[in-house]
Amino acid sequence: MYAGTSPGPIILSLFSVVLYLLLVNRKVEVQNGRMALMWCRAAAFAIDFWFALFTLSTLFGFVPVLLEAQRTGVFRWHFQRNYAAFSDRFDIVLVLLSICAFVAYFVLPLMKGSQSVGCWILRLATVNTNGYVVCLPFSSAMRRLLAEFRGLCSPIKSFRRRDAEGRTFYDIDSGFTVIRY
């Protein structure tokens, strides 16, 4: 097993968590907006994907370093061993927790009527048919996220199946759409 990190990425990841929490706990107020272009939505997703991936992988990757330090009594930023240890059993739990945290990164803004980092940078908001940002219940937020994932897995379908207003099939199915303000 090999694991390692350094203080710089850990500090940057902690700063990223603080930024994300500030954004998630800030309600979005949209007065006027227009349908977001597909490139804006794709760019926001790319920013969010890499932001979440960097932050979460750094923080969850630090856990094996801490477990190894507890097991051996010596803290090192990097370690490598070619044998199994009892603490290796926590790896599957860490993987499952990191997947849940990754999903939560996208679901929490929908549930709180706020924005993720990518949507904040590009000034995007998810609104209902009346143009209001709403706080979705967990089940609706998960349905919206799964519909967006289906759209991500079939980009040709997302580009081809849009209505006259520019809404994608998953916007129409969920009853919500993304606007740029």
Question: What's this model, at a glance?
Answer:
The chain has 181 residues and is mainly α. The protein is 61% helix and 9% strand.
What would you say this structure looks like, in words?
By secondary structure, the chain is mostly helical. The chain has one domain (about 1-180). It has seven helices and five strands. Strands 2-5-4 form a three-stranded antiparallel beta sheet. A two-stranded antiparallel sheet has the order 1-3. The relative contact order is 0.18.
The tally of strands reads: 5
Strand content: 5-15%
Low-confidence stretches: none
Along the chain, the helix and strand elements come as EHEHEHHEHHHE
End-to-end C-alpha gap: 48 Å
- Main sheet: which strands, in order across? 2-5-4
What is the overall pLDDT average? 88
Q: What structural category characterises the helix and strand content?
A: mainly alpha
Helix fraction? 55-70%
